[in-house]
Amino acid sequence: MYIADMHCDTIYELLLKEERGEPAQLRENDLHIDLRRMKEAGYILQNFALFVNREKWPHATKRAEEMLALYEREIKKNTDLIAPVFCFGDIELNQAAGKMSAVLALEEGGILQGSRELLEHFFEKGVRMITLTWNYPNEIGYPNMSKDLFTPDVEHGLTDTGRELVEAMERLGVIVDVSHLSDAGFYDVAECTGKPFVASHSNARSVCGAVRNLTDSMIRILGERGGLTGLNFCPDFLTTPVIGKENPGTLEAAVNHARHITDVGGIDVLGLGSDFDGIGGHRELPGAQTVPLLAEALGKGGFKASEIDKILSGNVLRVYREVFS
Asked: What is the pTM of this model?
């Protein structure tokens, strides 16, 4: 059993630790993810997002560069365990050498400032996935972020600049990620792309109504296009929170989303997108070391071993093989 996770915010958290003068090591730490626990759990690949909250850091590109520098330092310090990915062949080489693979991503298309040159710059640095928006509009498009978290934006999608950048991403071999994007933006991406695209960390809106999750129509489109969505461990995206009550998260809720998503879009449409270190926590999935428990829960929930392998890593590797240059 191998694990490939399309989204975590560990680099963001490590940089905050470093700035507070606290120990900040990717190899071993008190966050959701570190290399030691990943290796023991059976990880083959982890996407590391350079996440920028532009309300806190309006100079988004500068902040992303700071995280990139930390990422590069940590990867170089741990070459016995992990190596970066620039093309799909790197994943195969890393696996043959007994190493895990690190895939670099941007979470907040505003980092690019609408610039093709910045897109190419980050591509050269190893970025192979870009989450087009976070919670604020940017040069690319508009997010699903309403005041009540349950009213999607069905009017504002990609900008003209956004369409151009999405098309440029496809040509370069950068995966287009629609998690956080508005409903209108999702359909714009579907219309202007040809390769598979993903929602790296989104669940099923029919099961939990948060607008960060996908409608059944979106899930079907991803399945038809050979793309996928990554199962997000955030409790509030797994079960609808009740005001005044704790929402700790359960394995059962994660399995419910997995069953619905695969029933709607097929078994090839689902991967993992834990959102580790970007969420407050999940009682039954508190870190990388517990992902094998999800595999057990999926088995108890009626998924076959071959289907579990696809969800845990096979589907992600298939998409990466097709899209990466």
From this structure: 0.97
